[in-house]
Write a structure and sequence with these properties.
three-stranded antiparallel β-sheet, 15% strand, globular, single chain, MarR/SlyA-like, alpha+beta, Arc Repressor Mutant, subunit A, DNA-binding transcription factor activity, MarR family transcriptional regulator, two-stranded antiparallel ribbon
């Protein structure tokens, strides 16, 4: 019973059922207990703070790192700003500011698309590629430091993928 949780089996995966509410539930005043959204908000806050602390020594924000990482993993190592906006949920104005900042730092370059002069192609510079890989390595080190057992990690991957699909479904969580 790790972390005070009893394990119960379901047909899809093993699910942790709380034996008791964690201490933070009382601390933040959730007298009725913590539901899924409260847990997700708490996790988001903790992970966001950790990520901010991990990327800050590299002179980046998490949003800037995500732009670099998305370009690095894009087909051909290139990306159109409109695609970056769609993948990262950013506005075109916010993406322009991020790309301006990254270009000024020498981490990305922008050039007209040779097949369509109306479009811009964004690529990482060598410095941007190196920095993106260094930050990515540090993020993987942090994840490994969590020391989650392989079975728990596998269950989390499956559970979070199901949750992501459910939340990403148009109309999810909205009343008709």
């Amino acid at each position: 019973m790790p972390n005070g949780r009893a394990m119960t089996a379901t047909s899809a995966t093993t699910v942790a059922a709380p034996a008791r509410e964690p201490g933070w539930v009382d601390e933040v005043g959730l007298t009725g207990g913590a539901g899924l959204l409260a847990r997700l908000v708490r996790l988001n806050m903790l992970v966001s703070a950790a990520l901010d602390g991990l990327v800050e020594p590299f002179g980046l924000t998490v949003a800037d790192y995500l732009v670099l990482g998305t370009i690095r993993h894009s087909p051909g190592g290139q990306g159109a700003p409109s695609r970056l906006c769609r993948l990262l949920g950013r506005t075109s104005g916010g993406m322009t500011l991020a790309l301006d900042r990254l270009a000024a730092a020498g981490l990305v370059s922008r050039a007209p698309d040779p097949t369509d002069r109306r479009r811009i192609i964004v690529e990482l510079t060598e410095a941007g590629d190196v920095l993106s890989r260094r930050v990515n390595d540090r993020l993987h080190e942090w994840e490994a430091e969590l020391a989650l057992p392989a079975a728990v990690r596998d269950d989390l991957h499956l559970t979070l993928d199901v949750l992501l699909d459910a939340v990403a479904t148009p109309g999810a969580g909205r009343r008709p």
